[in-house]
Design goal:
Blueprint (H helix, E strand, L loop, with lengths): L1 H39 L3 H14 L3 H13 L3 H14 L6 H23 L42 H38 L9 H39 L4 E8 L2 E8 L2
Antiparallel strand pairs: 1-2
């Protein structure tokens, strides 16, 4: 009985972990969708913040690349460099590693130019917008490096390491639950047989106290085992199904990506 309770508790605990992870994935998906929409609208700094929230919910390395891309086009070069370097630390064998290193080198130069420019006093004057009335100056914003922002990487789901344990725990708990149901049913059957012997004994048959004791003992024990076994079987089946779901392969795609620095391939996937 003690082992049964431990296994049921383990199954319930794993079920709670699976639900928490599912909530995190859903939150990451929503932040990623918002970030991609903002990225398409060229609201790059807001997109970077949305991608950061997605990464907080699920630490997928692809999101670090997206954060770096968004900060790069927001001209927040220091943050972009930091995100690119974090991406390479998490994905040392990334297929676009050479391109990322080139971007880091390019942005370090842009960052130095930015710093030098901020330290120099402005030169020249601005002419009026037209006529004799002075107009509001319209400074020209520098364009991000490259003609068009390249695509971001969709988050990729890494293999869930809890899936094998969930499947094993689910199978063991479910099998134990079925064994308990069978055992409880057998005890109830023995109790029913003993009760039948007592109730249907021919007249004049001596009273058998042991049969009555069997009925009083086996009925509650059989009912308890059957109920506990049913609960364990349901919990085990649920955990096993979740384990198989977590282990199910995700669809991945290989997409060509064109950028100002050349062409390459981007791995994509779904949550």
């Amino acid at each position: 009985m003690g082992n049964t309770r431990i296994l049921v508790a383990l199954a319930v605990s794993l079920l709670g972990v699976a639900r928490t992870r599912a909530d995190d994935v859903n939150a990451a998906r929503e932040h990623f969708k918002r970030g991609s929409k903002l990225y398409d609208l060229q609201r790059f700094e807001e997109a970077a913040e949305a991608y950061e929230k997605a990464y907080e919910a699920k630490d997928d390395p692809a999101l670090l690349f997206n954060i770096a891309q968004a900060y790069r086009f927001a001209q927040k070069y220091e943050k972009a460099i930091g995100a690119y370097r974090a991406f390479l630390r998490r994905q040392p064998g990334a297929s676009n590693r050479a391109d990322v290193l080139a971007r880091i080198d390019e942005m370090q130069k842009l960052l130095e130019a930015q710093r030098r420019s901020s330290q120099q006093p402005p030169g020249g004057t601005l002419p009026p917008a037209g006529g004799n009335e002075p107009g509001e100056p319209k400074p020209v914003e520098p364009k991000p490096a490259g003609d068009n922002p390249p695509s971001t990487l969709p988050p990729q789901v890494a293999p869930d390491r809890t899936a094998p344990r969930m499947k094993v725990a689910g199978h063991v708990t479910g099998a134990l639950g079925l064994a308990l149901v069978v055992t409880g049913g057998a005890l109830l059957g023995v109790a029913a047989s003993a009760a039948g012997d007592v109730n249907n004994a021919p007249d004049g048959t001596p009273f058998d106290a042991s049969k009555e004791e069997q009925v009083r003992t086996l009925v509650p024990a059989g009912a308890a085992l059957t109920a506990l076994g049913a609960a364990a079987a349901i919990a085990g089946t649920t955990v096993a199904v979740l384990g198989y779901e977590r282990a199910r392969p995700r669809n991945l795609s290989l997409v060509p990506a064109l950028g100002p620095g050349g062409a390459g391939l981007v791995f994509g996937g779904r949550f």
